[in-house]
Design goal:
Length: about 450
């Protein structure tokens, strides 16, 4: 969620959520462990490529599991003509039929929303894109049309979108925020997690055509953020979520939510706790922008691997930790993947499952090279987290990507995906500061 909308929410709700956090994700937790990945001598990743000369915030990416198609979304704050009349900023989508060598022109996502008890209308802003692709090539997407979490799917590589679902209307809520998406391989089972301060999850079992009523999953009074989701081979669905205090202060709890009954009921397991996040000293930056986050993925054998950022002392730099579970119930001890950082440390973790049952890819951002020299890093495990490769510097300096780090992570998260060949794609945004401008970049692993 972006800066401008924090003010909008306070105005719209008239103080109902005056203490609620604004634009950032949160999560994190845990004791320290071994492991210190360092830059590898061999460069595994292609040179970073910029999407466009535009002010683009917070991207995401998904690859087809059975074809060369790759899809990207980002949130565009410049070039209003690309968004449509009356829009301040929008989510744009593009597609590649050849593993990212060429791309279609960017198209804005549909902006219609339907709030409870009122007529449908057109949103003036969009945020928080999430997408996934089924084995049949259908694209599933969730995002915010204003304060209305929206779902749609596409069967023609993003040229058209249909089967819209509006979860704010379905739940009768005053607002909805920060969606995340999980689908079964076929796309028959679809789950969308979101919040209205509390955590909610809705389910569809007919490829996103109809939906169950959203289920509230928490009983506390924290502000929840969904940050990852995956469906296991046995149908169990998992979401990684963080829960922070309404005033953005104090500890942040990291949770793995799971359902073994197709989303009718949910169990929350807290897998860690982080103390208060490091401060964000950039103008207009929300207090919780660097709040700890959790991500997860499920491997082909059903192993769940989660990565999260955490500290043991309020305001201290965050470390990156990984944990794994064979059943989502009993978890390994946290293993430290990165403890390097200056002011903030590690943040914004992302996890994707590889083609082999116990292979996982983990990426994150950190400021080890200085508080204004952020970079994207990635590492891999082939044994469900017992050992890890050396960390690769993904956002490395090249002719098209100058410098030795970027000034500020431009967005609350970034995207990771793995295609049918095992190639890993990352998409992230880099900015001058919280208000930008910034640009979306992407890279993929070499064979």
């Amino acid at each position: 969620m972006h800066r401008v909308n924090v003010v909008i929410l306070a105005t719209v709700l008239g103080g109902l959520l005056a203490a609620a956090p604004g634009a950032a994700a949160a999560a994190g937790a845990g004791p320290a462990g071994p492991g210190r990945p360092h830059p590898a001598a061999h460069q595994r990743w292609t040179a970073p490529r910029r999407w466009a000369a535009a002010n683009d915030w917070e991207p995401n990416v998904a690859a087809s599991p059975r074809s060369p198609w790759v899809y990207q979304m980002t949130t565009r704050y410049s070039h209003p003509s690309a968004c449509g009349r009356g829009m301040r900023h929008c989510i744009v989508f593009r597609a590649s039929a050849d593993h990212g060598r060429t791309w279609t022109a960017a198209r804005p996502m549909p902006r219609r929303y339907c709030p409870p008890g009122r007529r449908c209308a057109l949103a003036s802003w969009q945020n928080d894109p999430v997408l996934a692709v089924s084995t049949s090539g259908v694209i599933y997407a969730a995002w915010m049309n204003g304060w209305n979490v929206t779902f749609m799917r596409s069967t023609d590589h993003g040229r058209s979108w249909h089967d819209a679902a509006y979860f704010r209307r379905a739940a009768g809520l005053s607002f909805t925020d920060k969606p995340w998406l999980a689908i079964s391989p076929s796309g028959r089972d679809v789950y969308v997690a979101f919040n209205s301060s509390n955590s909610y999850i809705a389910a569809s079992h007919d490829y996103g055509r109809t939906w169950s009523a959203p289920v509230r999953t928490n009983s506390d009074h924290r502000y929840w953020f969904a940050e990852a989701g995956a469906v296991a081979p046995d149908g169990t669905v998992y979401f990684g979520e963080s829960a922070e205090h309404q005033n953005d202060k104090g500890d942040i709890r990291l949770a793995v939510l799971s359902s073994a009954d197709a989303g009718r009921t949910w169990r929350t397991r807290f897998v860690g706790t982080s103390q208060q996040q490091p401060p964000c000293r950039v103008a207009d930056c929300p207090h919780d922008f660097f709040g700890s986050q959790i991500s997860l993925a499920v491997g082909r054998s059903g192993t769940v691997l989660a990565a999260y950022c955490a500290n043991a002392k309020a305001g201290a730099p965050l470390g990156l930790y990984a944990i794994s579970s064979a059943d989502g119930k009993r978890w390994s001890a946290p293993r430290l993947l990165s403890g390097q950082g200056t002011a903030v440390g590690a943040g914004f973790p992302k996890v994707a499952a590889g083609l082999r049952p116990r292979t996982f890819e983990v990426a994150w951002a950190d400021d080890r090279d200085g508080p204004a020299a952020w970079n994207i890093w990635a590492t891999r495990t082939t044994d469900a987290g017992a050992t890890w490769s050396r960390a690769d510097l993904v956002s490395r300096p090249t002719a098209g990507h100058p410098g030795h780090g970027f000034a500020f992570p431009y967005g609350d998260y970034f995207g990771i995906t793995v295609d049918r060949t095992g190639t890993v794609y990352l998409a992230w945004s880099e900015g001058k500061n919280y208000d930008g401008p910034g640009s979306t970049w992407w890279s993929k692993s070499r064979p």
